[in-house]
Amino acid sequence: MITVTFALSAESSAFRERLRERETRAADGTEIVAGRISGKPIEILHTGVGREIAAARLRHYFDRNRPALLIASGFAGATRSNYRVGDLILASNFSNTDLVSTARRVLREQNVHTGTLFTASTLIDSMNEREDIWHSHEALAVDMETEAIHEVCTKRNIPMLSLRVLSDTPRHPFPLPPEVLFDLARQRVPYFRLLGKLIAQPATIPKLLNFQRQITQARRTLTMALVKLLQSPI
């Protein structure tokens, strides 16, 4: 069995639709979606956003399940302006070397970059923050869970591949402050806060709609890559 993790169901929605024999179960209050791709048994685990919740959910999941490998997937933000929304990132620092080689071969016709992924403790938005991460860590992109997922997988001796898609870049950043788009403490979109911001600043509505299109594009690209990868003899 192969486990694929996403932070949120909004990242996995298109991929879930590609599963055959799909079923859902609850485990310790966390929803697990199971199914098959090309006959391979697949399980989807939503880790939540952030290191602590991701590590806790994954440890609980591993207490009852032992996959042959784990693919840590989802969205990431680019640190450099020369990357585009929809580009794929293979994190060499959080992945099994052989799995990276296989993924690069299978996805060679897609726009894939291999390099360092940085896991942040907060939502990173500004160009200055992204630039600092690039200069300090030479990281191509930033997320909020992969390092914690990698630590848990390493302790459990489970091979891991990190495959992320860029949902935002310095040229195509978040349309609103991160705290308006997502509440880390509550692990959900703060809809009243978001609505209040849109009412106060209606000029941001087109930016939000464009960001939704970015997310749709990124989700579609990531789903295609994951399906292609899982259809191969990985």
Features:
single chain; 234 residues; alpha/beta; Rossmann fold; five-stranded mixed barrel; 9 strands; 41% helix; globular
N/C terminus separation: 12 Å
Low-confidence stretches: none
By secondary-structure content and strand pairing, the structural class works out as alpha/beta
CATH architecture assignment: 3-Layer(aba) Sandwich
* Annotation field: number of helices: 8
What's the number of extended β-strand segments? 9
Whole-number mean pLDDT: 93
Task: Describe the protein.
By secondary structure, the protein is an alpha/beta fold. The chain has a single domain (2-231), classed as Nucleoside phosphorylase domain (Rossmann fold, 3-Layer(aba) Sandwich). 41% of the residues lie in helices and 27% in strands. The chain has helices at residues 9-17, 51-64, 97-106, 127-137, 146-156, 178-181, 191-200, 205-231, and strands spanning 2-6, 20-27, 30-37, 40-46, 69-78, 88-91, 112-119, 139-143, 160-168. The protein has a five-stranded mixed β-barrel, surrounded by four helices. Helix 3 links the parallel strand 6 (88-91) and strand 7 (112-119). It starts with a strand and ends with a helix. The model has no long low-confidence stretch (mean pLDDT 93).
Write the layout of secondary structure elements.
Elements (H helix, E strand, L loop, with lengths): L1 E5 L2 H9 L2 E8 L2 E8 L2 E7 L4 H14 L4 E10 L9 E4 L5 H10 L5 E8 L7 H11 L1 E5 L2 H11 L3 E9 L9 H4 L9 H10 L4 H27 L3
Parallel strand pairs: 1-4, 1-5, 5-9, 6-7, 7-8
Antiparallel strand pairs: 2-3, 3-4, 5-8, 6-9
Helix pairs in contact: 1-8, 2-5
